[in-house]
Amino acid sequence: xxxxxSEVSKALYxxxxxxxxxxxxxxxxxxxxVKQTSKRHxxxxxxxxxxxxxxxxxxxxxxxxxxxxTPEELCAKAPQVDALIVRRGTKVTREVFEASKxxxxxxxxxxxxxxxxxxxxxxxxxxxxxxxVTTPHRIALPQYGCLVVNAPTANTVAAAEHGxxxxxxxxxxxxxxxxxxxxxxxDRSSFLGATLAGKTLAIYGFGKVGFEVARxxxxxxxxxxxxxxxxxxxxxxxxxxxxxxxxxALASADFHSLHMPLTPITKNLFGDFAFSLMKPxxxxxxAAHGGVIDEGALLRALEARVVVQAALDxxxxxxxxxxxxxxxxRSDVICTPHLGAYTLEAQEGVALEVxxxxxxxxxxxxxxxxxxxxxxxxxxxxxxxxxxxxAEGLGKAAxxxxxxxxxxxxxxxxxxxxxxxxxxxxxxAMVIKGVLEDISTARVNLVNADLLARNRxxxxxxxxxxxxxGSEVLTSMSVALGTSDSRFSAAVDRTRRxxxxxxxxxxxxxxxxxxxxxxxxxxxxxxxxxxxRDQPGIVGGVGMLLAKDQVNISFMTVSRAARDRxxxxxxxxxxxxxxxxxxxxxxxxGVVEVTVFKEVITQYT
Length: 605
Description:
six-stranded mixed sheet, serine biosynthesis, globular, ACT_dom, D-isomer_DH_NAD-bd
């Protein structure tokens, strides 16, 4: 018998029960639906996985191999299969999900990127009376909605090895010497190389691939630095790697190896300014993403001999325009066509990883490779929505205040009338999402949040404090990062941690504390923060500079510790001030420091 929505609410919430009933499936709607049937599943494989992966699937499933399938054929097969596995070449569009009429429950991507899969169409569902089914756990679930899983780890070693291969090939001019020999020349003098032992390698992005590159570089006798403001210093120290600032890495290294995600922060990070800080004669390897290097700036650095060699496996546009590209034809640039993960072993490993993920999802188990968030019933989302937004916003706010050195600890405190009965798993996941998603390519959700945090060496601690007897989910919530290295020193509390606190009022999330300062900020968009002495003229001076830069102000508030002492001012801004304006604000008499929160909180609908 199908429960009505009020019965669902009663089943999940009560005065003496936690936010989500501990014996319910808790946001694993897609997995629960899959688990209901004991029949042999049918899996459509649309691109070549290799014999090992296919044999593994055939042990427990019916397998339909349909390589080079057309979009029309894919839509025709969608209602006949429970899962679909693709690589990069097959587009899984909204039309595919609609054509499946709810049968397709898992899409596996043999690789990391999921640009060829319409995640919004896979995840979304309508909660009308015709679209609701009942599970044994009595949670109303959508008939449509599909879990998307990928294979993010199997190619780590291959990518690291390719980075090292480019490093060695570049240092010893191997591609150029090979081409010379093929042309019938014996020309040793043109290919004088550089010894790697004793040289300094700077690694930008100390995630899984960067860590493996560091291991191999240490084996070559290199001194290894790493820049990653969100990496754990303990993890780096265990490998004999020194975490440094971005500027220090640029100024100190002989070789620069890029392994960072492409985010708004890292886009064109290596531009004219970055290259100007490098030592003359530097060499650079990019096996990360084409967009992190400004290709025009790299060309200028090569022409000025600040950079004497570059090795590129990735490009802004792939494939690039070979005739017009300014770097590909140069003799001091080594190019490969995005081969980082392209080894036999990595491709087989990716196939096995995605097969394991698909089979786990079909069996109803938690799948740590889930890319899209599991479905949550609409009425639950409506109650949780402001707290979800608050949790993610606090995570984003805290990490945006980190300067150059990493942190290993995230402390979350929940003040709630439900005390220890509050099931904080979704809120914790959203904090991790806020911390990680702007600094990595990971898509964080309830299923994979803790795993992603562990992979980055982060320790998550939670404290539940009972507060009052109200009916609200939370009275307040705080996030603290275990570092005092902040680009806004006022955000550091008395325990030497970056600290932010917030609450929900009137259904809207507010920041209520930054460091030791009480604030009341309904955050939507960007905020300019200043730390200043409590004296006349500052508000007017800062306002005039913003007006001169055509930056509109939406609100302004000041919080001070005591009269005539220090204060912080928060100004809502509709656009980001220029670097010159920010520098001019620091020159306003009384202003000590300034920073900008960029789109701290995203409103979900």
